[in-house]
Write a structure and sequence with these properties.
Rossmann fold; two-stranded antiparallel ribbon; 4 helices; 6 strands; 31% helix
Length: 142
């Protein structure tokens, strides 16, 4: 229960919609309002991120895909380039960016490239997951 309360402390009610504090809400009047909007999506080379991108592409959105997968992997379908092609076919503009969200400079560079290419960023979808592995030193115990 304490975790839920802590999470709720970061949000505030605004009419019937909950929005994060200090974030300006963006209202959409109807489906199709994403035309011309720029969406930055992490982890959109496959799965949920790609599904969000494809839906936004139908409205004509500009979409930046920031993900690590640039070469095909036999265990995981899709790369930023194959996703970009799907997004373009669905009607959106797409900028595939090789980006590792665990690296702050990589994220900053991706955001700057997106803003420079499309003139800004309207929506951020943080869909990527990342594993942080702490390097530990193993010593012999005698």
């Amino acid at each position: 229960m304490q975790k839920l309360q802590a999470l709720n402390n970061h949000f505030e009610p605004q009419q019937t919609v909950w929005v994060m504090k200090n974030i300006q809400p963006l209202e959409f009047k109807r489906a199709g309002d994403l035309k011309g909007k720029t969406i930055f999506i992490t982890g959109a080379s496959r799965g949920v991120g790609l599904a969000i991108a494809l839906r936004a592409a139908k409205d004509g959105a500009n979409i930046a895909i920031a993900a690590k997968t640039v070469t095909p992997n036999p265990k995981l379908e899709g790369t930023i380039y194959t996703a970009a092609e799907e997004i373009k076919k669905a009607g959106g503009n797409c900028l595939p960016i090789s980006c590792d969200i665990r690296d702050e400079k990589s994220v900053k560079d991706a955001l700057e490239l997106t803003a420079k290419t499309f003139g800004g960023i309207d929506i951020l979808v943080n869909n990527a997951s990342a594993l942080y592995l702490k390097k530990t030193e193993v010593t012999d115990v005698k």
